[in-house]
Specification:
With 241 residues, the chain is mainly α. It is built from 7 helices and no strands. Helix 6 packs antiparallel against helix 7. It is globular, with a radius of gyration of 19 Å. It starts with a helix and ends in an 8-residue tail after the last helix.
Length: 241
């Protein structure tokens, strides 16, 4: 598990896109139980999960971001961050990632996305977390052990969250700068998959029938381009890193 975690930690940014490309190549989206009404409900459930995961990521990055890039492709931490969102969940970013991955798998709806992609994402983040926690135990010892006993690994406990965030100011520039690519991928993914399913199974015969799916995708493309231009020009720089 630790060796797998070290590998996935190093290449984690490529895991999501590669897996979803493979899912798209190996299967096409299916109707849940071959029923349009049930499938619409499952799309809504998957969309809520994916967008909730993205919202959690943006909240964490804006309030109390931990640099997860490691050092030389390996887990690294100079300090143990236990404030802000990290006082309520040890791995809120990974919780967000899992919600996005599982949500998109549900929206897609193929046997490959259910039986392979969703379980794979769970394994990846369990492995990464095991590797990080092994490092943190060695680095911070008893301090980290006390932290693990009081804060859940993945499931957030939002009791007292307002008090935990009172000393923080939300840095929206950092949130956009750090996560605009993930925002584009997660939100666009929901609408593109749902639009593809509409085209395949709901008999969309005109371009107008797909406007509810393509319009949000177009807006997300504009968001991505604008965020990238602002980042490159330095307009999203902030004093908080």
């Amino acid at each position: 598990m630790l060796k797998s975690g070290a590998f996935f930690f190093k290449y984690r940014n490529a895991v999501f896109p590669i897996v979803f490309v493979l899912v798209a190549l190996l299967s096409r989206p299916n109707l849940f139980f071959n029923d349009l009404s049930i499938d619409r409900a499952m799309i809504m459930i998957g969309a809520v999960l994916a967008l909730s995961g993205q919202a959690l990521r943006l909240a964490v990055i804006g309030y109390a971001y931990i640099k997860r890039g490691g050092k030389d492709g390996k887990v690294f931490a100079e300090t143990l961050v236990i404030r802000g969102f990290y006082a309520h969940c040890r791995n809120p970013m990974y919780t967000g990632n899992l919600l996005i991955g599982i949500g998109l798998a549900i929206v897609y709806g193929s046997w490959v996305s259910y039986a392979v992609a969703a379980p794979f994402f769970v394994f990846v983040y369990l492995a990464i977390t095991e590797t990080e926690e092994n490092y943190l135990r060695k680095q911070f010892g008893e301090e980290y052990e006390r932290y693990t006993k009081s804060v859940n690994r993945f499931i957030p406990n939002f009791t007292g969250l307002e008090a935990s965030l009172k000393d923080f100011r939300y840095d929206w520039k950092r949130a956009i700068r750090k996560d605009y690519g993930t925002v584009f991928g997660s939100v666009s993914g929901v609408f593109l998959i749902a639009g593809w399913k509409a085209y395949l199974y709901r008999g969309a015969e005109t371009a107008g029938a797909l406007i509810p799916y393509w319009a949000p995708f177009g807006l997300m493309c504009l968001f991505y381009l604008l965020a990238r231009v602002l980042k490159k020009s330095g307009h999203l720089s902030s004093s908080n890193g």
